[in-house]
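Submission sheet (multi-component)
Chains listed below:
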Amino acid sequence: MTSTTPDTRRLAVLGTGMIGTSIAIAAARAGIAVRGWDLDPEVARAATRSGSLAAAASLEDAVSDADLIVVATPIPAVAATVVAALHANRTATVTDAASVKTGIVTEVAGHAGDRLDRYVPGHPMGGSERSGPEHASAHVVDAIVWVLTPTDATDPARERQVGAFVEALGARPVRLSPQRHDRLVAFVSHLPQVASTSLMSLAAVEEAGEPDILLLAAGGFRDLTRLAASNPRLWSEILSANREEVGAAIDLYIDRLVSLREEIAGDAAASVERTFAEAKAARLRLAAKPQVRAGVAVLQVEIPDEPGALARITATLGRGAVNIEDLQIVHSPEGGRGLVHLTVAAGSVAAATDVLADGGYDPVRLA
Amino acid sequence: MTSTTPDTRRLAVLGTGMIGTSIAIAAARAGIAVRGWDLDPEVARAATRSGSLAAAASLEDAVSDADLIVVATPIPAVAATVVAALHANRTATVTDAASVKTGIVTEVAGHAGDRLDRYVPGHPMGGSERSGPEHASAHVVDAIVWVLTPTDATDPARERQVGAFVEALGARPVRLSPQRHDRLVAFVSHLPQVASTSLMSLAAVEEAGEPDILLLAAGGFRDLTRLAASNPRLWSEILSANREEVGAAIDLYIDRLVSLREEIAGDAAASVERTFAEAKAARLRLAAKPQVRAGVAVLQVEIPDEPGALARITATLGRGAVNIEDLQIVHSPEGGRGLVHLTVAAGSVAAATDVLADGGYDPVRLA
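Outcome: structure written.
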């Protein structure tokens, strides 16, 4: 056990895919030196193009002088790589980025012996539908929730080290037990993925007989099926690793669907309306919660639909030295006017509002 | 039967909620005079604040000199209001905006007698989670698919009139039979709504025992539950009106979920991966299809993350007289660089690419 919190000055990333390289980019931005290693030398080479890490010749080489080691391999290799890292460097703290925890923690515990105190299991809850180091970006970890699931054997000083590292990367550490983590992500991450893939899969089958079906697919359908474009191998591994919790969540989801289906079939309009009203109330409570990214605000501004209209509003904000974190045209303007949602840092709301008002706009804060 | 296509110079909107008032706003923009009526005088009064319509004292008053009447009441009142409109004005064409067609068409046919030739059933496939005239906007109908489901009795000249009206409003008329419309929307509109509400409803129940569950709800969960904030009364009416097709779609969806659940439980990783790969391929085909709006293209451009970066790119396009139809920052830039997706008219792709390249950008056409 170490009594003081170890510093993280040198990081090793084992597995330099999209998540591993994104962590490397965010760490380099925070002034941490990063060495990376991947089982596939091509992937490691591609990761060096991010400019954030030096490629190591071997796992041992990558971890040799590290203070912290992040294992970001595919799920089936995580436990073995964590154990190898604990053996290859006798002082460093080891964490991982796997999105399912219980099985990996059990497997590591079975092989790590008294080195288990240096292992702090983790799960950065960011990502995208894309994979590979070429899609890595600090945005993947910016302001996300990063779950840590320490075991009974985990040294609290090591846990503090990883928490400080997560915060240095701009993310938000949240502590849960491995079992609780796996149960909660089954509902809010794995089940939505299954629901989305199943819906897209059904529509694709129907499309064979009804070629016009996707012509009618508007925003709602697109929202619900966006996740269906995710990496099939990655998801097959995640669902397999969390199969009991995911199975239980799917069963409860099917129960809800069956019950709503019966209400609709029985023309129980009052029950259907009540079910919808309760879900709406829950969704509005969710919308009122801080987005996973804290510290931002959304301003709605109306603009005319003509060439240069966006240029004028972005130039106006540029003059006020306001950085636009995100910008979305809410309804595609074909004529008339457009609505723009600008996301800015919460600390920039006053400056943004002032400079927009000076420019003749009438911004409304939405969130 | 009229042989020439009637003009639409005077419009009556019966039911001035969100959809009715949005149609009024788009019609007024197209130079059409609009009178509106609502069973609730407060709603009609609120609709006049849009500046697009004059409130009529009665249904008869609203339709007296109209060339075209749009019925946009709640679904249970649509058929009776269509019949009343066909009787109150002996020459005008009547259409409606109900999102389920077969039952309404049958009911109108049973009461309209030889006036049925003037009825062109319709469904503007736009909307939002919001209701009420205060949330109306021309954006709700801009560039949407607007389905027309003429009956055997419908006068083709009347159908052409409504088609021309839809195009004058900036939307895209698509012709389907009422039965086919109801079957297709069950899959791409009603089932996604049921899937979204059921997921939110389940998470809300789980939240009672696991208060942290929504802390972990990232972008995927939010995407899948956005629709759950929709109007409960409206959806209870839609699902009831289309209960057979919706029931069949829910059953097929449950079949998919059960099958995926069995694959996961049986640890059939190869099958799970194949299911996901097929759904991914279908989703990418959908993404490559023209969005509901035809005639646009999407360019991806990388920009540095700093105040003024968006201003420079939008100014560059403005100099080329290229109108930006939509702009989205794909990864919120907090540091490093950002990716921007620019939607422009297909005819502007060459001009946009040239002017961006001259400005030092490297645009990639995505769709």
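Remark: Residues 290-294, 331-336 of chain B have pLDDT under 50 and may be disordered.
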